[in-house]
Amino acid sequence: MRKLNDVLKKTGVEVYREITSVALYSMITSLVLVIVVMFMPLMVALVLLPLLYMPLFYGVCYAYHRKTERGKSRLQDVFQGALQGLGPAIVMGFFFVVMALILWSTWWYYGGKDGVGYLAIGVFQTYFVIMALISQFYTFQLIIQEKMGIFKAMAHSVKLFLKFPGYTLGACFQAFCVAVPLLLTVVGFGFLFNGMWAIFQHKVAFNVLNPEETKPATDGVVASEARGVSI
Questions:
Q1: CA–CA distance, 88 with 99 (Å, rounded to integer)
Q2: Alpha-carbon 217 to chain mean position
Q3: Of 136, 137, 211, whose CA–CA distance to 174 is shortest?
Q4: Average confidence (pLDDT) over 49-73
């Protein structure tokens, strides 16, 4: 199995080569995210994010997977993947919403109380939510690459996390370190993050699922120029 540093290097090269599709796919999904977050009431947004944003996010992951199979990126793969993965994406979306609500309600209730015990409960609940989220790092890729059902993929993702805890935590930490600067620029997040995440998550998961395989042809550094995207 490759080291995480090698996966990061390959991800960076691939993002550069596929910068057009990375920007286009990220922009489409982020447009939905901005509309829902900025213009919808909070409770409506919590429902619409799993129903609208998460399927498109899944579609970006699916589109990159299709690119690795076909060697060419197509915009229609995003929407095709969103339709194919509608059910799993919605389930994962509501899972994230529930985790966010648990975290918010924990600090809303215990954060205003005095005492070390209440603080300890808040910290434990936060740790629980973070670990639950990290344990689902591989779920989408298990559905896409291994053709698993959503609940089987969620269970297997937990097993992979427990089997490779350091690798998975390291991958999540690296993603977090990239996401924070992009969030601060706002525009950078909208134009880059989802496409970068799809590439990074695919390579991390492929490395775990195929530890003995040599890298596929589409994973190699064949050309340094950026590639276009087909409609």
A1: 17
A2: 24
A3: 137
A4: 92
Cα dihedral sign for 213, 18, 157, 131? positive
How many Cβ atoms are within 10 Å of 129's Cβ, its own excluded?
18
| pLDDT value at 103 more than 80 | yes
Q: What is the 3-state secondary structure (H, E, C) of 59-82?
A: HHHHHHHHHHHHCCCECHHHHHHH
Q: Which of 167, 150, 196 is nearest to 19 (CA)?
A: 196
Of 141, 173, 120, 131, nearest to 57 by C-alpha is: 141
pLDDT tens digit string along 186-212? 788 888 899 999 999 999 999 999 887
Please check whether residue 74 is in contact with residue 229, taking contact to mean a CB–CB distance below 8 angstroms: yes
Q: What is the mean pLDDT of residues 122-145?
A: 94
134: three-class secondary structure by DSSP: helix
The first and second tokens of residue 85, run together, are 């993965």
- Tell me the sheet residues that pair with 74: 230
Of 121, 124, 134, which is closest to residue 95 (Cα–Cα)? 134
Contact 76, 210 (CB under 8 A): no
